[in-house]
């Protein structure tokens, strides 16, 4: 895909992200997205067959961007260091990219998530990256052999909860508080 086409598609994604954060899924018509992205409505349909496809593709786009950021990790780090690093990178990314954070949160609570679970492989939206990371730790005997949903609930759930607490003003983004939180998570999953 050439740069101009990629830029149009990215403009559509970014406009959709902004408008969905402002108006929700149902309050964001394709015509409004086109106007905001400064493209013709037909251009959107050139890339996406429907609004549903645009939204599910936007979810994959957001997850890819998030994973590229959080998994940009030095291979020389120990597993524990990677565990802490990835978690902190996720919190930092969501705090710096709140539109992506809120879109992903809204997406998981919508029928769109059910749709991709039924029709898409987890690699489509990047869930396999985290699964592979946890599997590596389990196979090496570093973390406890518990289910992926349990691990993801603890690890990602704590990160998203912390982002919400900071965003809502219930707590400030303090280094010590974050270090305490990830240390507690590590102590819970560490295979001592």
TrEMBL record:
Source organism (scientific name)? Sphingobacterium deserti
- Show the PROSITE patterns listed in the entry: HTH_TETR_2
Keywords assigned? DNA-binding
Q: Where is the organism placed in the taxonomic lineage, from the top? A: Bacteria, Pseudomonadati, Bacteroidota, Sphingobacteriia, Sphingobacteriales
Protein name (record): Transcriptional regulator, TetR family
* InterPro entries, sorted: BscR_C (IPR032551), Homeodomain-like_sf (IPR009057), HTH-type_Tx_Regulator (IPR050624), HTH_TetR (IPR001647)
Per the record, DNA-binding region residues lie at 29-48
* PANTHER family for the chain: ACREF/ENVCD OPERON REPRESSOR-RELATED (PTHR43479), TRANSCRIPTIONAL REGULATOR, TETR FAMILY (PTHR43479:SF21)
Q: Name one GO molecular function term.
A: DNA binding
Annotated HTH tetR-type domain ranges read 6-66
Entry annotated with the keyword DNA-binding: yes
